[in-house]
Here is the input.
Amino acid sequence: MSDTRPEMERIKEDSRYLRGTIKEELAQDSTHFSKDNVQLLKAHGAYQQDDRDVRNKRRKEGLEPLYTLMVRSKIPGGRLTPEQYLAHDELADCYGDHTLRITTRQGFQFYSVFKKNLKAVIRGINEKLGTTLGACGDNVRNVLGCPAPSEDRAKLKVYEYAKAISDQFLAKTSAYHEIWLNGEKIEDESRKKPASGSGEEEVEPIYGKTYLPRKFKIALAFPEDNCVDVYTNDIGIVPEIKDEAGMRHASSLLTGFNILVGGGLGMSHGSKDTFPRLADPLCFVAPDEILGITKAILLVQRDYGDRKSRKHA
Here is the structure.
């Protein structure tokens, strides 16, 4: 009987929670990854590419494409320490093309990373308590927050919620640590992974074996500053912030969150089933309900998103 699963769904379901044969291919003296592993690498934060500027020349010379990888780090809320930035900068000089590009979703991208150097880049990011896990692929992407610095107590709290939401949706598979960190755990309590090797089936309690139908985007704005274009995200979050009577603005209170759902800019030319749309208001939740509501919304997308047509997912 032929396999009727859509290609990406087959690759994810058969990958043993994002393992595939990435580890085995890393050990091989080759310049690039195989087709299925190229797709799985996205969830680990890397895209395989080839240099278009020399593509035709190399083809005429009978050479394979000049393969490299783009590596993307995930920076919740757009905040990182000086040490984390310097580590990114050094890695770009050592293993990339000496450039470090900031994305519109508050990540860093390295370019022209050769396959033999990929593990060193990902490990270097993790050694400074960063990650590339989930920066690409069919999962929750980087959770955005307003970039403007503030000493306002409530606004600082909003960043903490961005980090908490991001941590909630990090994949729980230990494949990432097995492949890139030699099974070691980086000492960040929020990113600890379950132990592997017990012989029992490893479980992704939120994502399951096939993860999401497509990428999923979440962003947090400020009431007076739509800094993240909150209406264009799958989940947009606008905090309610109130000043305490007679107190300075630095003593403002975060009283809850307005939740928006269903925004996105993705569309395919000529396909009427795909179109950009603004998010719709859903509800208001208390601060202690934000993790629950975001998880509930995500589970709806996981279970009812269109897995047969990624353009319509």
Summary: The CA atoms of residues 103 and 154 lie 26 Å apart.
